[in-house]
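Lecture notes, part 5. Sequence design as translation. It can be helpful to think of inverse folding as translation between two languages: the language of shapes and the language of residues. The source text, in structure tokens, appears below.
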């Protein structure tokens, strides 16, 4: 499951950066659009989830 979360995080970061530079320009505005913030939030949730799981495994 950790490998799947890693891959999902990489995909989200790639979509976030492509959306920020304006590759999806005809359908989604470039810059700090809802797509950017959605991907950033999902990536942060994955990071926090993995951190919590790692602490639980250590205990």
């Amino acid at each position: 499951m950790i490998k799947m979360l890693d891959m999902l995080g990489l995909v989200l970061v790639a979509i976030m950066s492509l959306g920020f530079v304006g590759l999806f320009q005809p359908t989604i505005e470039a810059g700090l659009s809802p797509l950017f913030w959605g991907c950033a939030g999902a990536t942060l949730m994955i990071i926090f989830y993995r951190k919590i799981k790692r602490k639980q495994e250590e205990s």
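The translated text above is only one of many valid answers, since several sequences can fold into similar shapes. The first helix runs from residue 2 to 21.
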